[in-house]
Structure formats: structure tokens, C-alpha cells
């Protein structure tokens, strides 16, 4: 009888253990502020990229001093996502040289990301992270911009550069002249919302809220993010 009771107890423990293992991990959002910033889109101002560091040990997350930085050519700023703009060129149907800004969002080598939804409302409603979401996280390919640079013009060849950026998780997908905005919708309703896993292992939700705002902010891009979990 005693052996039977012990066997039954062991079975209960096993079933409880299996039940705990089967339950998916859910990370609930902590009490972190929503942050929004206008980043310069003019490559004369934003020369080497605006690096965004979502979680930093040097200050509290409700402070803003270390959230982003306009980087130098040689810079050790530990960004998670970088807003980088270069001038690209192409020839029109008449053979004339045309210059076009080419803004993109690029990840650091230690950052992972995935798209979860669209729009500010979805951003606001996203308050928990599941294993199914984190399983979608990917890294970005490394892009050597110099291979697309034309030494004669000093600009970057648009067509192959666009192909390379299309392989990135964000790349140029936020640009209002690339983003498909259905009739009756606004840009803020369809801008992609991303889950970011930082090099520290923190989870952050991130989006471009407005690519090209109205004057006097027309040369800037508005980004929005919020830490979910450190």
C-alpha cells in the first residue's frame, strides 16, 4: 500500500512538473515610460547615424541623456538600432543624374528584432511578450556601404543598395514613399511595430511613428519606443 501511495505521489509531481514546462513563458511589461524623439534625416547633420541605446546601466530608464547619440566615424556608442542616412544616385529615363536620400534603420550585431504588428494602437496594446514572439527574432545582415559607393559621384548606387537594405529586418520599410498606406488609413495606423531584443537581453517595442512630419520638422523622423522588460 505504501509503495502504491509513493508511486501515486511521484506521478502527481511528474504531471505538475510537465504542466509547468508546457506553459509558455509570458513576459509582462514593467512600468517604463514611452519615449519619442525626432531624429535628423539630413545626412549633412546626421552624418554617421543616430544610434539608439534602449537600456543603459549608466542612468535610470526614465532619464534621457543616453537614449541616442549622433555618432562619429569611429564611435564606440553601444547602439541597438541606428538611423543612418546616405545620398544615393540613379539615372532617370533621360539619362540625367538624380540624387535621393536613402534613410534606413540598421541593427547592431548583437541586436535581434521581429515585426509583430502595425500602428500606434497596436504598439500601445502590446503589454506582454510570449515565446512565440521571441522565436521570430532575427539579426540583420552586415551591409558594407562602401561597396555601393561611386568614387566619381561620391554617392551610393541606389539599385543595389536598395536590394541590400531590403534584406534587413527594418531597413527602409518605414519610409512613407515605400510603405503602403491603404485608402482611409493614416501612416501612424500602418507603420510596423517591432520587438527588439537588446544586447543586454532586454525586450523593447519600437516603431517609426512618422517618417516625414509636417513643417518645421519635415527634415526629421519621429521614432517611438518603450521598454517591456529589462
Jot down its keywords:
disordered N terminus; globular; five-stranded antiparallel sheet; 5 helices; five-stranded mixed sheet; 230 residues
Contiguous runs where pLDDT drops below 50 for at least 5 residues:
3-21
Structural class: alpha+beta
Largest sheet: 5 strands, antiparallel
Gross morphology = globular
The side-by-side strand order for the widest beta sheet comes to: 2-12-11-10-7
- Fraction of residues in helices? 10-25%
Order of helices and strands: HEEEEEEEHEHEHHEEE
Q: Helix count?
A: 5
End-to-end Cα distance:
51 Å
Give the strand tally.
Answer: 12
Overall average residue pLDDT? 86
Strand content: 25-35%
Radius of gyration: 22 Å
What does this structure look like?
The protein has helices at 2-22, 119-125, 131-134, 158-165, 187-190, and strands at residues 26-28, 34-40, 50-52, 68-70, 81-91, 97-107, 112-118, 128-130, 156-157, 192-197, 203-210, 220-229. With 230 residues, it is α+β, with helices and mostly antiparallel strands. A five-stranded antiparallel sheet has the order 2-12-11-10-7. A hairpin with a 5-residue loop joins strand 5 and strand 6 (97-107).
Summarize this entry quickly.
The protein has 230 residues and is an alpha+beta fold. It has helices at 2-22, 119-125, 131-134, 158-165, 187-190; strands at 26-28, 34-40, 50-52, 68-70, 81-91, 97-107, 112-118, 128-130, 156-157, 192-197, 203-210, 220-229.
Write the layout of secondary structure elements.
Layout (H helix, E strand, L loop, with lengths): L1 H21 L3 E3 L5 E7 L9 E3 L15 E3 L10 E11 L5 E11 L4 E7 H7 L2 E3 H4 L21 E2 H8 L21 H4 L1 E6 L5 E8 L9 E10 L1
Parallel strand pairs: 5-9
Antiparallel strand pairs: 1-8, 2-12, 3-4, 3-5, 5-6, 7-10, 10-11, 11-12
Amino acid at each position: 500500500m505504501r509503495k502504491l501511495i509513493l508511486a501515486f505521489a511521484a506521478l502527481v509531481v511528474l504531471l505538475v512538473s510537465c504542466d509547468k514546462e508546457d506553459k509558455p513563458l509570458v513576459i509582462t511589461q514593467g512600468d517604463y515610460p514611452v519615449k519619442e524623439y525626432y531624429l535628423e534625416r539630413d545626412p549633412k547633420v546626421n552624418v554617421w547615424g543616430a544610434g539608439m541605446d534602449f537600456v543603459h546601466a549608466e542612468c535610470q530608464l526614465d532619464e534621457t541623456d543616453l537614449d541616442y547619440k549622433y555618432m562619429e566615424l569611429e564611435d564606440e556608442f553601444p547602439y541597438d538600432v541606428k538611423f543612418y542616412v546616405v545620398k544615393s544616385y540613379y539615372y532617370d529615363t533621360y539619362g540625367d543624374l538624380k540624387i535621393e536620400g536613402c534613410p534606413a534603420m540598421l541593427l547592431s550585431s548583437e541586436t535581434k528584432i521581429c515585426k509583430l504588428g502595425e500602428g500606434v494602437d497596436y504598439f500601445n496594446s502590446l503589454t506582454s511578450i510570449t515565446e512565440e514572439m521571441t522565436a521570430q527574432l532575427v539579426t540583420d545582415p552586415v551591409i558594407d556601404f562602401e561597396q555601393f559607393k561611386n568614387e566619381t559621384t561620391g554617392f551610393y548606387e541606389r539599385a543595389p543598395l536598395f536590394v541590400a537594405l531590403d534584406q534587413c529586418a527594418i531597413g527602409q520599410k518605414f519610409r512613407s514613399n515605400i510603405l503602403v498606406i491603404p485608402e482611409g488609413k493614416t501612416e501612424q495606423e500602418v507603420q510596423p511595430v517591432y520587438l527588439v531584443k537588446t544586447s543586454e537581453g532586454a525586450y523593447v517595442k519600437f516603431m517609426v511613428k512618422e517618417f516625414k512630419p509636417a513643417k518645421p520638422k519635415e527634415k526629421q523622423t519621429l521614432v517611438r519606443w518603450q521598454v517591456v522588460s529589462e
